[in-house]
Design brief:
Number of strands: 14
Bound molecules: nicotinamide-adenine-dinucleotide, uridine-5'-diphosphate-glucuronic acid
Strand order of the largest sheet: 3-2-1-4-5-6
Radius of gyration: 24 Å
CATH superfamily of the largest domain: NAD(P)-binding Rossmann-like Domain
Distance between the termini: 59 Å
Largest sheet: 6 strands, parallel
Shape: elongated
Structural class: alpha/beta
Mean pLDDT: 95
Oligomer: single chain
């Protein structure tokens, strides 16, 4: 691949740090844009030339609310390149934000991280630095990866043969959610840093100072936080914090789904149960929405990765195993609920409203919509779908799925509608119109307990939620 010329960085701009971010995806782009917004000079690097070219043209490769404006706002402090070696030489701090997808056994595949680490080593070998390069692992990586990255950087330097590399590896796990990534990055609940030397922690504290002290300008009024806790620990504990956080949230959702299923049997309403337990500060009200369960690029892969880390030590992670089983069962419940009212699904038209794994994103990784569509397709149903943002990508991902451009087009002639993703626009659906367009028995399966059952029934449809009595 022909490499693009390295962008010129104007050193005259008053900046604290020159920050390199390798991996211009959901995490890399948002991290880079936020650090530029708070005053740093940022170079975003990616192996994909197509991605870098489109970013240079001002086109974002992902849908993330608020990101475009933030990047425009800080455009004079952001550059793009495919030259990772060049970024490693120029940056004070270099974030690794590449994908760590699951391998065939469910473990985190670290090949992208390894490739970047070796490239950093090659680039640093023989280049004089007064201060060590801070190599920051922002990708989600198993405990012990910090040492692995250090080893690979050293190996890369040896390969280049021009002398040792001057660097430090730190762990800085990311907790942003897609759909609210910009907000989460500017107003995080905490910043976690893992390192084995004080100077690295001090450098990272200085980098994050504007966010820790909440001193950057914002239109968000009132400012949600006075200051952000900065948690420092060792590398391995920092890496574990990330997996523990995602696993806990996934378990919390599976727990409320278990309660939803029992509520349904006994005739209780899980929404009331969740509200009742959520007010206990020890439990908390967030992540208690029952329904078809968790998907996305992180919970499924990170829970599996944590299970496989435990397995390496012959430890069976029983709670995680159960959380995964409950989650898989929630998707199957959609099929059972459809069969309960439609009986055979063969030849039935079923419309999926919402295809992205959650609202406000175009991400389809491990989306329940795709898994449900496959299950319905294998039972002979005719599956159609609609999503405000992820429609085109869904049609590419699942050629058997007919994607329509309008929710009313999608429900036309449908025997059943499944609300898969709770996009806000579905709150304003004209339910009478939906019912009039549908075919008998006019079943609506609300996969997110999002709609008011009385409205749905009042419009002439059968309502089936999850654990709603
Ligand atoms: P992504 O797939 O959106 O982006 C990854 C980017 O890295 C892509 O643009 C890809 O081209 C690039 N890349 C891959 N290999 C590369 C290489 N060798 N050199 C340069 N670029 C390379 O991934 P993402 O969702 O941003 O996730 C990145 C990491 O952050 C993962 O470890 C993920 O688990 C973690 N994370 C993700 C989220 C999230 O909400 N998406 C949140 C927290 C943490
Ligand atoms: C999640 C975490 O919330 C982030 O903190 C973390 O950084 C990120 O994973 C990651 O490591 O990538 P994200 O996957 O973007 O963020 O989205 P969430 O809002 O957490 O939702 C995940 C899934 O859980 C979605 O499918 C959502 O529909 C489902 N969910 C969420 C529920 O079923 N019920 C809930 O109450 C909340």
């Amino acid at each position: 691949m022909e490499m693009k010329e390295a962008p010129a960085i104007s050193r005259s701009t008053p900046v604290e740090f020159t920050v390199g971010v390798v991996g211009a995806g959901y995490v890399g782009l948002v991290t880079g844009a936020c650090l530029a917004y708070v005053g740093h000079r940022v170079v975003l690097a990616d192996v994909s030339e197509e991605r870098i070219v489109s970013l240079e043209r001002g086109q974002l490769p992902i849908y993330e609310p608020g990101l475009e404006n933030l990047m425009l706002d800080s455009a004079d402090r952001i550059d793009f390149t495919t030259e990772i070696d060049w970024v490693a030489r120029e940056a004070d701090v270099l974030f690794i934000a590449v994908g760590t997808p699951p391998d065939e056994n469910g473990s985190a595949d670290l090949s992208n991280v390894a490739e970047v680490a070796r490239a950093i080593g090659r680039a640093l070998s023989g280049s004089y630095r007064e201060q060590p390069l801070m190599v920051v692992n922002k990708s989600t990586v198993p405990a012990g990866s910090g040492d692995y990255v250090s080893m690979l950087v050293r190996e890369g330097a040896e390969e280049a043969g021009n002398g040792a590399a001057n660097f430090r590896v730190v762990s800085n796990p990311e907790f942003l959610r897609e759909g609210s990534a910009v907000y989460d990055s500017l107003f995080p609940d905490r910043i976690v840093l893992g390192a084995d030397c004080r100077s690295a922690l001090d450098a990272m504290r200085a980098l994050y100072k504007p966010i820790i002290e909440q001193s950057f300008p914002t239109d968000v009024d009132p400012r949600p936080k006075a200051a952000v806790p900065f948690i420092t620990t060792d590398l391995t504990s920092s890496e574990m914090i990330k997996y523990a956080a995602n696993a806990f949230l996934a378990v919390k959702i599976s727990f409320i789904n278990e309660i939803a299923n029992i509520s349904e049997l006994v005739g209780a309403d899980v929404n009331s149960v969740a509200a009742g337990i959520g007010l206990d500060e020890r439990i908390g009200s967030r992540f208690l929405n029952a329904g078809i369960g968790w998907g996305g690029s992180c919970f499924p892969k990170d829970v599996m990765a944590l299970m496989s880390i435990a397995e390496e030590y012959d430890y069976e992670a029983k709670i995680l195993t159960a959380a995964v089983e409950v989650n898989t069962r929630q998707r199957r419940l959609v099929v059972s609920k459809l069969q309960h009212d439609l009986h055979t699904l063969k030849g039935k038209r079923i419309a999926l409203l919402g295809l992205a794994f959650k609202p406000n994103t175009d991400d389809l990784r491990e989306a329940s919509s795709l898994q449900i569509a496959r299950m319905l397709d294998s039972r002979g149903a005719r599956v159609v779908g609609y999503d405000p943002v992820a429609g085109k990508a869904a049609a590419r991902a699942l050629p058997g799925l007919r994607v329509l451009h309008d929710p009313y087009e999608a429900v036309k002639g449908a025997h059943a509608v499944v609300l898969v993703t709770e996009w806000e626009e579905f709150r304003n659906l004209d339910l009478r119109c939906v019912a009039s367009l549908m075919d008998e028995p006019r079943l609506l399966v609300d996969g997110r307990n999002f709609l008011d059952p009385r409205d749905v029934k009042g419009a002439g449809m059968i309502y089936r939620g999850f654990g709603r009595g």
